C-alpha cells in the first residue's frame, strides 16, 4: 500500500484514487464502526460525542474511557488527536502501543486528526496505517474555515479504503467541495500564514480569558478549553458568543477563536 | 406519519426534520439495501446499475429481472419510475400491487423517482409511503441541472427516516447544497418554464434523431433512448457528444438533451 506520509501527498493520493477517500468525515464514522462485527467499542474521552454515537449505532457495546490502559484491547478503539476539546496530544510511542494492541486483538484503531492541520508539527498516525488495523481521519473544513463544504478523508489500508469507497458510491463529494479543496490545498503560503495567525490569536484569546477570570486548561490553536465559574456560559450567550458546554463537565467550556477585533472586544466585555 | 403529498411539501417537511432526509440519493442506496438482513434483492431492469451494486454490497442475492411478476416477493424490490433509460412509467395499480406484495412478504419496495421532477404529472409512489414498506427517492440535481451539489431525498416512514438520519449524521448536506436547493425550490415559475422548455427540446431532439436514422424507443424529457445502427456511439463520440452505451444492449444508446443551438447542430451534423 502506498504510504500517505503527509497531508499534501495524502490529497494527491486521494485524487489518484489510491489510499484515501473523502467526503465529510462525519458520514464515515458509522461506516468505520461497522467494519467490525458488533463487539466492544472504547473511546478515549472526554471527546467528540459522535464517535460513541456511531459505535453504538453499529451495535458495539460502547464506552468512553478516561485512561489509555482501559482503551485497548477492543473491537474498535478511537482516539481524537489532538483531542477536541482538551487538546491532549498522544506521543509516538503511545500511538504505536495502541496500534500494536489493536492489531494483536484483531481490532481497529481509529485516529481522528480533524484538528491536525493547524499544528502539523504535532504527531500524525498516518505512518502507522501501512502496518494495518489503523484508520486516520482528516478534516478539511476546520482549518480552512469551510466546514459547510463537507470534505474529509480517511487514510486506510487498500481493502478498507475500497470498502468505504463502495459504500460512498460515485459522486460522494460535491463538485464545489472538490474545487474548494483543490484550491485550498494548492495554497501552502495561505496555510503557513494562517497557522501563525491562529497561534497569535489563540495567545491573545488566552490573555482575554485569563483577564476575565477563566483558567485555560488546554485546546488547539482553533479553540480553548477553560475552567469557568457558574453562569459564564449564560453571560457569554447574552453577549452573542456561542461556546460549547459539556453536560457532565459543568465547570468547563470550549471557546472558539474570535473572527475579528469586534469579536475580541465582545469577549473581553462579556467577561469584564 | 405526516404524508409527503407533493415535492414542495416534501422539502418543507424535510426542513422540519419530519419525514424525509437528504443528501445525494446515491449514498442512500447501500443504507436502504442494508435496512433488511441479507436476502433476495430484485431490481426491475434494465435500469440504473447502482441499485444492483448497492444491493449486492449489503449481502443480498441480487438479480435484475425483466418482468413485474418476477420482481416480488423479495427482501428488497426496486423500481426506477420513470425508468432510466427506458422512460417506462408504472401505473398506480401496479405500484399499489407491488407495495402490497412487499408488505405481505416483510420486504421493502424502493421507488427511485430521480427523474420525476421533469414530469410531475406522472405518477409518484409517495402516497404509498404511510402504508409502510415503501421508500421513495427524489433527486435534486437532475431536473435542476445541479448534480454536483449532491442533494437528494428519501421519503420514508418515521423509523426508516430516523435510521437513515442517524447513519448520515449531522451536517450530511453541504451548506451550499442547502442554499441552492432552497433557492431552486422557491422558484416555481422557473420550474414550470423549464418543463415546457425540456418537452420542446426533447421533441426537437426526437426529430433530429429520426432524421439521422435513429429510432426513438422512449425516455423522459431529460434523455431519449434510441435504437442505433452499429458505429453510432463512436460517430457521436468523434463529434464530442458523449452518450450512454449499454454493455448487454449493444443496439441502444441513451442520448441527453443538447444544451444549446450548437449542440443541436452538432448532433444533426454527426448523424448526417
What would your notes on this structure say?
Chain A is of the alpha/beta class and 272 residues long. Chain A has helices at residues 7-15, 25-33, 50-57, 92-105, 141-144, 158-168, 175-185, 188-211, 232-238, 261-271; strands at 20-22, 40-44, 61-65, 76-80, 108-112, 134-139, 152-155, 215-220, 223-227, 244-245, 252-256. Chain A has a 7-stranded mixed sheet, sandwiched between helices. In chain A, strands 8-9-11-10 form a 4-stranded antiparallel sheet, covered by helices on one side. In chain A, helix 8 runs parallel beside helix 10 (261-271). The radius of gyration of chain A is 19 Å and the shape is globular. The relative contact order of chain A is 0.13. Chains A and B meet through helix 2, helix 3, helix 6 and helix 7 of A and helix 2, helix 3, helix 6 and helix 7 of B.
Number of helices of chain A: 10
Output the helix-strand order of chain A.
Answer: HEHEHEEHEEHEHHHEEHEEH
Q: Can you summarize the main beta sheet of chain A?
A: 7 strands, mixed
| Low-pLDDT sequence parts of chain A | 1-19
Q: Which descriptor suits the 3D outline of chain A?
A: globular
List the defining traits of the structure above.
10 helices, 272 residues, globular, homodimer, 4-stranded antiparallel sheet
Fold blueprint:
Two copies of one chain form a homodimer.
Chain A: H1 7-15, E1 20-22, H2 25-33, E2 40-44, H3 50-57, E3 61-65, E4 76-80, H4 92-105, E5 108-112, E6 134-139, H5 141-144, E7 152-155, H6 158-168, H7 175-185, H8 188-211, E8 215-220, E9 223-227, H9 232-238, E10 244-245, E11 252-256, H10 261-271
Parallel strand pairs in A: 2-3, 2-4, 4-5, 5-6
Antiparallel strand pairs in A: 1-7, 6-7, 8-9, 9-11, 10-11
Helix pairs in contact in A: 2-3, 8-10
Amino acid at each position: 500500500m502506498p504510504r500517505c506520509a503527509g497531508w499534501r501527498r495524502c490529497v494527491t493520493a486521494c485524487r489518484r484514487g489510491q489510499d484515501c477517500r473523502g467526503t465529510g468525515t462525519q458520514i464515515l464514522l458509522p461506516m468505520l464502526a461497522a467494519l467490525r462485527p458488533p463487539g466492544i467499542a472504547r473511546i478515549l474521552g472526554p471527546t467528540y460525542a459522535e464517535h460513541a454515537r456511531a459505535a453504538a449505532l453499529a451495535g458495539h457495546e460502547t464506552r468512553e474511557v478516561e485512561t489509555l490502559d482501559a482503551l485497548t484491547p477492543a473491537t474498535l478503539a478511537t482516539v481524537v488527536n489532538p483531542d477536541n476539546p482538551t487538546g491532549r496530544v498522544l506521543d509516538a510511542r503511545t500511538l504505536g502501543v495502541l496500534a500494536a494492541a489493536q492489531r494483536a486483538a484483531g481490532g481497529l484503531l481509529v485516529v481522528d486528526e480533524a484538528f491536525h492541520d493547524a499544528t502539523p508539527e504535532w504527531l500524525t498516525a498516518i505512518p502507522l496505517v501501512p502496518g494495518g488495523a489503523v484508520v486516520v481521519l482528516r478534516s478539511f473544513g476546520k482549518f480552512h474555515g469551510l466546514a459547510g463544504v463537507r470534505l474529509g478523508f480517511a487514510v486506510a489500508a487498500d481493502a478498507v479504503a475500497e470498502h468505504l469507497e463502495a459504500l460512498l458510491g460515485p459522486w460522494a463529494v460535491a463538485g464545489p467541495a472538490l474545487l474548494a479543496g483543490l484550491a485550498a490545498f494548492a495554497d501552502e503560503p495561505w496555510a503557513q500564514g494562517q497557522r501563525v495567525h491562529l497561534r497569535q490569536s489563540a495567545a491573545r484569546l488566552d490573555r482575554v480569558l485569563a483577564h476575565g477570570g477563566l483558567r485555560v486548561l488546554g485546546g488547539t490553536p482553533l479553540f480553548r478549553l477553560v475552567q469557568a465559574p457558574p453562569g459564564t456560559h449564560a453571560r457569554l450567550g447574552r453577549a452573542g458568543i456561542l461556546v460549547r458546554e459539556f453536560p457532565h463537565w459543568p465547570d468547563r467550556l470550549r471557546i472558539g477563536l474570535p473572527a475579528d477585533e469586534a469579536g475580541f472586544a465582545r469577549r473581553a466585555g462579556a467577561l469584564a
